[in-house]
């Protein structure tokens, strides 16, 4: 009877994990990532086993454009009202965001005027963080 219970539990566990790609085996990262990254001023492309994607670029072309400054997403100054555009690489995904603190504006591109503060009462929970300075 115990053997049947153990087998049934193993079958349930196998069904629950079917189709899920594990990134670790025995403490080692086993996910294969393919892409490119800048090393010593050169675009190096390849495949690497890792827990998180070490490649900020999907192709050598994308890497080369960025190396030449043509992939600079902040170059066109997308932030309004003197917000600062900052580029980031998070787990291999390139992104940018506007930092609006100290401008009197908030939002994705610093386009929304900060609401007035009520000095007599604490700030409401939904008060924009970029407006606190």
From TrEMBL:
Ranges where the EGF-like domain occurs: 70-111
Cross-referenced InterPro entries: EGF
Span of the signal peptide: 1-18
Domain of life: Eukaryota
Gene3D superfamilies from the UniProt entry: Laminin
Coiled coil start-end: none
Key words, A-Z: EGF-like domain, Signal
Protein name as it appears in the record: EGF-like domain-containing protein
The species this protein was found in: Ridgeia piscesae
